[in-house]
Amino acid sequence: MKLPRQFFKPLAIGAPAPLRELPVRLERMIHFVPPHLEKLRAKVPQLVSEVDVVLGNLEDAIPADAKEAARDGFIAMARDNNFGTTGLWTRINALNSPWALDDLTAIVAAIGNKLDVVMLPKVDGAWDIHYLDQLLAQLEARHGVTKPILIHAILETAEGVNNVEAIASASPRMHGMSLGPADLAASRAMKTTRVGGGHPDYKVLADTAPGGSARAAYQQDLWHYTLGKMVDACAAAGIKPFYGPFGDFSDSEACEAQFRNAFLMGCAGAWSLHPTQVAIAKKVYSPDPGEVAFARKILDAMPDGTGAVMLDGKMQDDATWKQAKVVVDLARLVAAKDPAMGKIYGL
Ligand code: GLV
Ligand code: MG
């Protein structure tokens, strides 16, 4: 086992020291851009002011014969734009693919100092994180990168779910984790053909009623178990959990419901794969103004966060104070990025 003192030493001579705390950033949506398409790359300057994270996708959904073009396109879009406080991420190809090594060596060499996070797909265990951790440190050292590039894992294999706690705590480079429902469904041999969301046949039936009237059916959430397990693993390790993709672009209502369930359970954001999903993520992952107002009332009523008070007939104590602080801290982050929301929150 690695000893505590070793944990925060750089893994290569000349690499930047690992971070002890994650940077505090608003990451309500991770917006996917297919960087081999020049038309979509041209929209990046506009996107930077509209989204919290711009991600150049090199993995699934990029055709095999466009992998190099996507890598080059990502480097070009990273070079050509000023991202300010908006995050710049890339999703590299899986470690067992023919492209992952060149993705990393080319990207860190060209734009390592602009890159915030590498998203790693199909993570099965801590060993995948250790490999990437070491390789990133070597590349950072070689190319004079001054701040550590963080790692975000996609939880999308049955083996990964088995090892989720070890993955979350594998390295101080870990930023967070996203649920990947499409690959996870395939890995588990789930009998679905969807990218996230519910399924009408995954339900429980109400008891039979006297007289044989129709039985009510209640659709259940296919992802609740995994999401709960992932949120606990991330929270315990001090990293951020995210819901991943929602593939039915025609059903914004269901997308919003899936995003909201994840938000309520502790997730910080979700992926946006289509421009319409940016607004949905913004709405869901910015706290509700009514909730913010009530949370502020709790904080005001208990200035040192201890004791118990009654507010609108509801008991508040140290635990609700901490919940209120989560809501107000998030509202402050949103307000810093979006002054119009700040006004609505009164912050
Ligand atoms: C995302 O990569 C997924 O497989 O759902
Ligand atoms: Mg996937």
Description:
The protein is an alpha/beta fold. The chain has two domains: 4-285, TIM Barrel; 291-345, no CATH class. It is built from 15 helices and twelve strands. An eight-stranded parallel β-sheet has the order 9-6-5-4-3-2-1-10. A two-stranded antiparallel sheet has the order 7-8. Helix 5 (100-111) links the parallel strand 3 and strand 4 (117-120). The longest helix is centred in the C-terminal third of the chain and has 20 residues, at 318-337.
Keywords:
2 domains; eight-stranded parallel β-sheet; TIM Barrel; binds glyoxylic acid; 15 helices; 347 residues; two-stranded antiparallel ribbon; alpha/beta; globular; binds magnesium ion; 14% strand
**Which residues form runs of ≥5 with pLDDT under 50?**
none
Secondary-structure-derived class: alpha/beta
CATH top level class name of the largest domain: Alpha Beta
Q: Main sheet?
A: 8 strands, parallel
User: If you compute it from the alpha carbons, what radius of gyration comes out, rounded to the nearest whole angstrom?
Assistant: 21 Å
For the record, the CATH architecture of the largest domain stands as: Alpha-Beta Barrel
Beginning-to-end CA distance, first to last residue: 46 Å
Please bin the fraction of helical residues.
Answer: 40-55%
The CATH homologous superfamily of the largest domain corresponds to Phosphoenolpyruvate-binding domains
Count, helices: 15
CATH overall fold name of the largest domain: TIM Barrel
How much of the polypeptide forms β-strand, as a percent range?
5-15%
Oligomer designation: single chain
Number of strands: 12
The chain-level mean pLDDT equals 96
Order of helices and strands: HEHHEHEHEHEHHEHEEHEHEHHEEHH
